[in-house]
Amino acid sequence: MTRMTPTELKQANARSLWHPMAHPKAMQDTPPDIIVRGDGSWIWDVDGHRMVDGVGGLWSANLGFGRREIRDAVVAQMDELPFYNIFRGTTHARAIELSERVVNLMQPDSVSAVFFSNGGSDAVESALKLARQYWKIQGQSDRIKYISLKQGYHGVHFGGMSVNGNTNFRRAYEPLLPGCFHVDTPWLYRNPFTQDLELLGKICAEMLEREIVFQGPDTVAAFIAEPVQGAGGVIVPPSNYWPLIRKVCDKYGVLLIADEVVTGFGRTGHLFGTRMWGVQADMWCLAKGISSGYVPLGATAISTKVADVFSQGDPALASVAHGYTYSAHPVAAAAALATLDILEREDILGNVKQQSDRLMSRLQALGKRSRLIGDVRGVGLMACLEMVADKSTKAAFGRGAKEVAMVARGAYERGAMVRTSGANIILSPALTISGEQIDLLCDALDESFAAVER
Ligand SMILES: Cc1ncc(COP(=O)(O)O)c(C=O)c1O
To answer: What is the whole-number distance in angstroms between the Cα of residue 314 and the centre of ligand 1?
Structure first.
């Protein structure tokens, strides 16, 4: 199906394509893998090499590749209406159907409206802007600040980047949005406070409270966090953390935004990460799994509490002066509707729980065996192997260390695609992955670690 030969593709990639999160020159010296086909959890590269996709596209192809139903919905929508906008005076059927669908799905979370966009960064940007507007409508214009977690990832727009908790993503683009502050993540493996999970949750929730009080509660618009941190290294908070931060936010009237771009639609084994913690947010940022990554789509789900303030607010203040040409693109909405049909019909969450047990027990065993793995963590079908230079001291690798890339390359050669991020090997396969494929993924990692250690 490609217009170029494999060699031409490789050359053209090096010549003309700049990649996200990569140095253009490095992409020439170490060319990226060219993926040309997918089926379920199998992917093939341009040289015909078949692998289990341990990355799930990018935490996104939750239902695996080649789902006929999603493809058919997309094709039918292309024939019927490939595009129309939903700016004020017009709308279209798929946008309406999808909004009702998401609202119904999230009724247990007290969601009553949804604002669509094109991806995770948009969903975050929309939530951050709507949070400020929520306060302005109520005459509290000083509530403009955002608090977020270190190690958090909230996409790449200026708002999301400003609440991001990793300086690597921020430095080249500073100065960022003023009024953004970061507090510690309850990270068991690396924290200076305690190895007692519950105490850690309490300490970190108190840090949020202290920051709100320090900033002045009447200046803080929202706290944003991922129910489980994904890109930051699959950091799973203690079970008391989210209930405690909900209480802190309520105490000071601060909005709670759950960035569920990764955790939404089943990745943790629960439909939404906030449900895993038994907590309701005030807004949820959704993307990736909503359309199984087949077509880009973002959504910001809005609780009744927030929606009521907008609908009862003065139109001069409460009109949403924000939106994207492709908000609720009909083709993306069609893909999402087909995705949600499958998610509701098949026991996807059951498969996540079953395969998660298999994955985590294999990874724990590998972690015990390998001197290069300091920590193994995860929940559902998101997992991380944190590699260390010294297991006993938890010393990190120095700059330029090759081990992490070598493990990933070794896994690739043995038939498993995994992702690296800093010293982390990250796994986020499709939620439909089979037990056999989990085994192949883990076999490839086992062998690759053993080879690198040798
Ligand atoms: C938690 C979280 N928020 C936001 C984003 C940004 O999403 P996108 O890359 O679709 O803009 C991501 C991307 O991985 C994410 O993991």
So the answer is: 33
Q: How many whole angstroms from 154 Cα to the centroid of ligand 1? A: 6
Long-range contacts (CB closer than 8 Å, 24 or more residues apart) made by 356-359: 356/269, 356/380, 356/381, 358/435, 358/438, 358/439, 359/383, 359/427, 359/438, 359/441, 359/442
Cα 299 versus chain centre, distance: 13
**Most ligand 1 atoms within 8 A of CB, residue of 288, 290, 295, 384 to mutate:** 288
- Ligand 1 atom with the shortest distance to the CA of 124: 4
Neighbours of 14 (CB within 10 A): 15
Give distance in angstroms: CA of 155 to centre of ligand 1. 5
pLDDT at residue number 433:
98
Q: Could you tell me the pTM of the whole model?
A: 0.97
The ranges of the chain with pLDDT < 70 are 1-2
List, in order of start, the domains of the chain with CATH numbers. 33-66+347-453 (3.90.1150.10), 70-345 (3.40.640.10)
**Which atom of ligand 1 is nearest the CA belonging to 226?**
1
Residue 157, amino acid: H
